[in-house]
Specification:
alpha+beta; Multidrug efflux transporter AcrB transmembrane fold; Alpha-Beta Plaits; 4 domains; 21 helices; Putative drug exporter of the RND superfamily
Length: about 725
Amino acid sequence: MFERLGRFVVGRAWWVIAGWVLAAAAIILTTPSLSDITSADQESFLPRSYESVQATELGQKAFPQQATATAIIVVKRADGQKLTPADEAKVGQLAQSLKGKNIPHTSGYLTGPPAVAPDKSVQIINVGLDAPAPDDPALLDAVRDLRADIGPELANSGLTAGVAGDVASFVDNEDTFNNAFAVVGIATIILIIGLILIIFRSPIAALLPVVVVGVVLSITTGLVAAAGKAFDLSVSQDLQTILLIVLFGIGTDYILFLLFRYRERLRAGDDKRTAMIVTVQRVGEVITSAAGAVIVAFLVLLLASLGFFGSLGPALAIAVGVMLITSLTLIPAVVSLLGRYVFWPSKAWQRAPKATISHRLGTLVGRRPALVAAASGVLLVALAAGVLGYKADYDFSAGFPQDTESAKAAQDLQRGFAAGALAPTEVYLTTGNGSPLTEQQVNDFAAAVAKAPGVGQAQPPERSTDPSVARVNLLLNENPVSNEAITLVREDLRDAVHAAAPPGTRALVGGTTAIFADINSANNRDLSVILPVAAGLIALILALLLRSLVAPIYLVIAVLLNFAATLGATVYLFQGLRGEPGVTFQLPIILYLFVVAIGTDYNILMIARLREEAREGNAPHEAAAIGVEHAGPTVAAAGLILAGTFAVLLLAPISFLQQMGFAVAIGIVLSAFVMSMFFVPALTALIGHKAWWPGHGDERPAGGPRTPPEPATVANG
């Protein structure tokens, strides 16, 4: 099949390229923009069955004046003394003056209750921020306008003020975010071009992935937008960035798979057309299987209960599908026309070096597979043990620089009020049938929940315009986004609040902490479903590729072990050595996307090469040695580029970006350099012919030609 495809693409290369140009132009010009289906609506992030979502919906209906977000102006004396009655009056004047300025997208300017901290250290003004979406840029401008007006109003008053809250924090760290992602984008291009220049010593080969991925990204975004319109799907604003990373990751992998094998066939004496036909024949099945495994892994995200992951899966699957078609048609067509000029101006590709690093590593694996398998396996298990100490961290603010205005204002706020003042837990009481709540019911409920476990302060109850609903805001003793607070809300606090509801009423717990508590439950549920299902489907794809039931089992086990080792290594570094309270709660699913899904490519490339060498008549140990020698440089180059891209995030001054950068980088390094180059080939050599049971995948097809390849290595250029 792939031989026929190779002959077709190479024989009609100009037609294939022309067809691609026309198809790309048609898709780009006729499909909608990705922004047309982008949504920041977080209501669908969690299913409606979760209590925090029900509480949010009830709050939006019962308190329609509730703002999209809140900015908290924290006022204190410049000399650090307690606020005087005159100071408190001045803060009231400040609130009225700011309100009179009619700053766009602001409302409320409430100075209570309670506005003054019990110790008189600070006084607050709650400002509502209103916009169609919580990430609307207009909210950022509103905070900037507030800050610009506060200074002159407090001049010569002896008071200072800072604006805290999520929007204010984003304003303070916007440049840090933008710079971090700009650096990653630039580093990606530099790494791809730089490393491929080192490997092939050719600007043409170095630019090929950048140009191809740029074209594929434009096509993919159009197709994703069209699919979103057709099936009424919305996507997160993060999708564009994730698409870019995924396409550069797999696109570079597949192009390197092709170029390494193409160079190998040219060295063996094939003409440029025959070399590409053989390359597609040999590598086409590997790329197809690898892409199939990644597509399956992404589509399994449809099983997630978290809405963001459910919409992410199909979009990424489309991207990988387009990259697969590109790798089997457009790239072979272009390279077959360029021939040896794809490696211009270097002539080193013509020489097959001896005694290279990859040759020595292959010899080690072939001669001592038991030692190599044991050493690499022990390393992975030791790192995986770190998972036992894993704690999820939901506190993004703690990872930001602490010298910004929003961070200092938040610290002042939490010193004066209970720790949960920045994100109150919203407790709603409702009859559920429209009948009004009595004052006695509301007051008794408010008094009871004020004594609930972990509550530091309770604000006076608020009545809705709907007489059947009331709300009490609780300020927790714990940081509202800490693991302690999340566990408290999920267990003891919710139980106490539900028990406090008078007969004939129902209580719901909402707010930031409750949302994170439900996200925690949903995330745990999703991972427990997604990982086993993905593992089973990837095993099925491997079984079809290898015609074996044994090899897929230990390959999937290796992938899952690598996932655990990656997460464990991150726990050791950030929770252990750096003493952080946990690692970002998003990390497991990020590792699933970039380590489990994409890292599987390296396993498939290596195991396919091991099978190919076995079919050439090599004994298991010899096949492992040759396989590592020839597939090792490809795996190393692809892994180094992807790992290096993410490692750049370690330079960002934001903790969760550092965690993400380290985790994905070390995960790819373990996938490429430990699992694929040592553990899998050594284990395959030990198992021998039984690895291919019940088929005969390691036997050369009857009458099949024996075509020993020339050595290949990163070092030769």
